[in-house]
Write a structure and sequence with these properties.
With 227 residues, the chain is an alpha/beta fold. Helix content is 32%, strand content 21%. The protein binds ligand BV8. NAD-dependent protein deacetylase which modulates the activities of several proteins which are inactive in their acetylated form.
Length: 227
């Protein structure tokens, strides 16, 4: 029996039960900020201190000991461990490190990472666990893909989707492209497409299988059918 190739797309919903807010539950006002002010390059240029304060707050929140991976993160780590790292790829829109904390290894952070910053001049990516003080070094920006910027490792993602036997979408509303279009690529490649979410996403009709409920419940249950 050949081992299936599985691509898993995760969004903010998989980390909701770990205590991290999703983006659109608060109708686009995220942590009380307008997404255009804190998740676009224009917003950053307009007011870099506001954007750094915002990401400093999220970085502190992520490192709060109460924020831990939940059963959904652990189920995905177990799937990779059982089927082999080459057969299970997590493409996450999330900038938190909860997949890593749960033990997953094969991860692409297509929208960047909260615990990394980037030198705008050299492109150097550096681990960052503390607040960024913009006044000290104006070349350091969050290593985050903002709206209007190109997501990371798109070639690898498209390549994996074209070979997928399963495409599983977890905890994402299907609002943001190109991630929201991955299910169509997977379907065209002949993959089985499954949506695991709290409620139907915008792309709901494109999925062959849909199971709704909190990720910590529906993800372990579904993953168990693959192991
Ligand atoms: C690009 C960084 C070109 C910040 C983020 C018009 C039409 C179509 C597209 C566009 C358009 N105008 C502009 C675009 C492109 C734009 C886009 O898609 N805009 C949308 C809003 C219309 N996209 C871009 O600009 C992207 N770049 O397109 O470049 C390109 C394209 C292809 C190839 C090369 C180049 C860049 C997008 C990246 C933006 N940055 N984040 C940060 O993260 O700090 S996006 C932001 O939204 C986050 O990354 C987040 O992950 C992402 C998606 O949100 P979700 O994860 O889905 O979260 P959301 O709150 O929406 O939903 C949560 C879901 O979880 C809900 O369904 C809920 O029911 C569920 N849930 C809640 N609780 C639970 C749960 N599920 C299970 N259990 C629970 N307990």
């Amino acid at each position: 029996m050949t081992i299936p190739k599985i691509v898993i797309l995760t969004g903010a919903g998989i980390s909701a039960e770990s205590g991290l807010s999703t983006f659109r539950a608060q109708n686009g006002l995220w942590e009380g900020y307008d997404v255009n002010d804190v998740a676009t390059y224009e917003g950053y240029i307009r007011n870099p201190t506001v954007v750094h304060d915002f990401y400093n707050m999220l970085r502190r929140k992520l490192q709060n000991p109460s924020v831990k991976p939940n059963a959904a993160h652990f189920a995905l780590a177990e799937l990779e461990q059982k089927l082999g790292t080459d057969n299970v790829l997590i493409v996450t829109q999330n900038v938190d490190n909860l997949h890593e904390q749960a033990g997953s290894k094969n991860i692409i952070h297509m929208h960047g990472e909260l615990l990394k910053v980037r030198n705008e001049k050299t492109g150097q990516i550096i681990d960052c666990f503390n607040d960024v003080n913009y006044q000290q070094n104006k070349l350091i920006r969050p290593h985050i893909v903002w709206f209007g910027e190109i997501p990371l490792q798109m070639e690898q993602i498209y390549d994996a989707l074209s070979q997928a036997d399963y495409f599983i979408s977890i905890g994402t509303s299907g609002n943001v492209y190109p991630a929201a279009g991955f299910v169509q690529i997977a379907n065209q490649a002949g993959a089985k497409s499954i949506e695991l979410n709290l409620e139907p996403s915008l792309g709901e009709s494109l999925f062959q299988t849909k199971i709704y409920g909190p990720a910590s419940k529906v993800v372990p249950k579904f993953i168990a059918t693959l192991i």
